[in-house]
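Hi R.,

Here are the chain sequences for the assembly we discussed:
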Amino acid sequence: MDSAQSGSPSAGFHPRLGGLAGFIVRRLLLGLLVLAIVSVVVFAATQALPGDPARAILGRSATPDSLKALREQLNLNRPVLTQYGDWVKGLVTGNLGTSLAAREPVSTYLHDRLVNSAFLVFLSAIISIPLSIAIGAYAALKRDRLFDSSASILTLLLAALPEFVVGVTLVVLFATTIFPHLLPGVSNIAPGTEPWTQLKEMILPTLTLVIAVTPYVARIMRASMIEVLESEYVEMARLKGVPEREVVVRHALPNALGPTFQVIAINLAYLAGGVIVVEYVFNYAGIGGALQNAVITRDLPVVQALAMLIAAVYVVLNLLADVATILVTPRLRTRL
Amino acid sequence: MVDKSSNHPGEGGGGLSRRDLLVGAGTVLLAGGLAACGGSGGSTGGGGGAGTAAGAPKRGGTFRLGVTGGASSDIIDGQSIVNKPDQARLVSGWETLATYDENYKLTIGGEDGGLAEELTQDKPDQWTIRVRKGIEFNNGKTLSADDVKYSIQRILDPKEALYGHVGMASVDPNGIKVMDDVTVRLSLKQADSTIGDQLGQYYNGIVPVGYSRTGPLKWVGTGPFKTTSFSAGQQSSHKRNPNYWRSGQPYFDQVSIVDYADANSQVNALLSSQVDAITDIPFAQVNVAKSNGGLAVLVSQGGNWLPLCMAVDLAPFTDNRVRQAMRLIVDRKAMLEQVLSGYGRVANDLYSPFDPCFDTDLAPRDQDIEKAKSLLKSAGQENLKVDLWTTNGAAGMVDAATIFASQAKAAGVTVNVHNSPNFYSTQYLKVAFSSDFWGTRNFLPQVSNGSIHGAPYNETHWPPASGPGSNYASLYKQALAEVDESKRCDVIHEMQSIEYNYGGYIIPFFNDLVDSYSTKVAGFKPSKATLNLDSFGHGFRTIWFT
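And here is the predicted structure of the full complex:
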C-alpha cells in the first residue's frame, strides 16, 4: 500500500531484513509523530467538553467552597499549557494520572477493563480472521456456484446490520425470548475475575463481533482472490501443469492476502473502538463502558488515556498490516 | 448522574444522560433499535405475574439486583449517595433512627420503627433521642448514644458535604449531649419541628464512632447486610449480618448489586434470569414484563416531581397574573401521558403530596386557555415571549419543557426552550424561567431546601418581598416552632394556599416508581416511597426467595 511508496525506492541491493527493519523504525517514528498530534487534539477536545469536572463529581449539592477545594485538588486551576505538559510527561512515563470519578490511578482503574476488552477482541479476532479468509477464498474458488452466491448474499446482509441489531437479535434468540436462559443475555464479568474463566458469558458478545467483522473481510478476500486467480502468473502456473492445489496455496493465496491484511487491520482497530456498542448491549465491563462512564462524569484523565490508547492501537495495527503485506508480497519487499 | 435532590438521584437521570452520550457518540440508532427489538419480545398480551405467593419467609440464596444510573463515581457511605445504586448499597448496610411506613408516615419505635425507641421534640428547640438497647453493628460493637452523637456531627460537618446537611442545619453541632448510654439530647439553633423527619431520611444513617468513607470502619453499620466487595460502576457483594437485631431477618445469605449502563440490557438480564429484580423498567418494556409469567411489575407511588420554575422577582413573572396564566396553560393529563406514559399522578402545583399535612382540599388545576389569555391580557402580556432553560438532569425534564412550549402556543405564548448542557453551572437559580427535578420530601424539609430565602435551591426566588405571600417566611418559622401537629398542619395549609394562589412553581405531575422482579422473590409491597422496589425490599430484609 502507500507504505511501500514511503520507503525509499532504491534500485540497489538491500539486505532484506535490514530494509524491513529500517522500514519498521521509520514507521514507528511516524507513528509517534501521529500520536503526538493526536495527543494535542485529544487534550484540546477534552478541554472543550462542556461542563465542569469538579461540579460533575460533587453533584449539584456542591457548595462553592467544596467546588473550589476540589478544583485545586484536581489541578483544574492551572494554565492549560502546564496541564498539557504534565499530562504528556505522565503519558511518557506511564503515569496516566488519577481518575477524577473513581479516585484511583487511571492505570489501576482501567487494568481489569483493558484485560476484558482485549480478551473479547482477541477471541473475536482468532475466530473471525481464519473464518473470513476461508469463506472468501473458498467463495472465489467456487465463483458463481451455490456456495459463492449464498455466501455473497449472507455476507452482504450481515455487513448491512449494525452490531447492536446483531447483538440484540442474538439476545432475543438465545437468552430472553426464543430460547430463554440458554445463554447469558448480559455478560457480568465480576470485578477481580478473569474473563477466560467465564467463557459462557463470552459467547454472545464474541459472536456479535465475529458477525460484525467477518463479512467485510470475507468479501475483500473473495475479490482479492478472484483477481489473483485471473492473473497471468496463475494462468502460467496452471499452463505449466502445477497442481491446482499448489497453485491456490502457494501462488494465489499469499498474493490475495496482501490487501486482506489491510482490511483485517482496519477491522481489528475498529474492534478496539467498536466494542463500545457491544459492551453496552451486554453490560460487559470493558473499556467501552469505561469510556462512556468517563464522558458522563467528565473524567478527563480516563477519556484522554482511552483516546490515546485507541489511537495507538490504530497506529500499531496499521504498521503490523503493512509489515505483513510486505512479507507476503515479494514485489514490495524488494522496493524497501 | 449526580443529583441534588437527595431522595432520587438518577431517577432516570442516569439512563437519559447515557443515552445522550450515545447520541453524541454517533450511535443514535442504538436506543431506538434496542427499544424496538426488546419490545418485540412481548407479543402475547394479558396480565399475569403480578401475584407473588405469600407464605412464611424462607432463608437462603443470593439475591441479585440490577440498577441503572451508576457510574465510576459510585460510593458506599452510610450517610451519603452520589448515584442511584448508592441508595441500594446504603440501605443494605445502614439504618436510620426512624423509618417511613408504606404510606410514607414517619414511624418511631415499635416493631417497624428504626434504631430509636423514642424520638421526641421536648421543646421547640430541643429533641431527645433514645436508641434501642442491645443493637449491634456488624463488627460486634453495641450501638450507643456516642455513635448517634458522632453520626449527627458527621452529617453537620460541612467538610463532609453529606446529603443530610441542609435539612439538619438547625442542629447546633456543639449542642449534642450524651445523657446516658442510650440517650442523646439535641439543642437547636432555632426551633425546628422537622428533625424527626430528617432523622428518618434513608441517607441519615447511623454510623459507629470513628466512621469514615475510606477508613477501617467504612463498611460497618447496623444494617441487615455487610459489604464484602465493591467495584464502583460495576458491582458489589454483601453478606448477611449475623448480628442483625430484627429476629429472623434478613432472609438472603447474600445480596449482589450490579450496575447497568443501559435500561434495556438490564431488562435482558432480568429476562435471562441473571438478576432477580431491576429498578426503573423502561415504560415501553412494562408489557413485556407483564406478559412474562416469571416476572412481576411493581408500581409504587413516588413523590418525585419535575417543575417548571418561575422566578417571582424577575420579569415577566413579577406579575402574579402571568404566573397564574402559565399554570392554567398546562394540560397536565396530556403531559403525564407524554412524559411518563401515564405512570404518575396529576398535580396542582404543590409539592410534598405524602406530607400528613398536605392540603387535599385545594382543587385540581385544569387547563383553561381562555382564562390564561384574559389574565395575560389584563397584565399587558399578550403575545408573551419567554425563554425556558432546561437540561437533561433527569428523565422527562426536557420533554416536560418542550411539551409545555407546545401547549403554550394555544394561549399565544411563545416559549423558547434552551437545552443547555451547562444549565446547572450557568443558568440555574439565575434565570426567570427554568426547569428542575426533585425527589420525595415532606413539606417543611422541602421548603428549607427550595422555597425560602437562604435555601440552597430556591429556584422560584420564593417568597415575594411584598404583597400577598410576603408573610410566608414568618409562617414557615411558626410551623417549625409548632410542637402540636394539628396546629402545625393549619399553618402548613395556609402556606400551601399561598403557594397555590401566588407561587412560582408549575408542578404538572408526580412520578410513579416502576420496577420489575422475578416471581421467585416474595415480600415486595407497593408503597408510597422515596426509593425504588419498596425501598429495595426495606434494605433487602423484607424479601425472600419462595
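Residues 1-53 of chain B have pLDDT under 50 and may be disordered. The domain at 19-215+513-545 of chain B is CATH 3.90.76.10 (Dipeptide-binding Protein; domain 1).

Let me know if anything looks off.

Best,
T.
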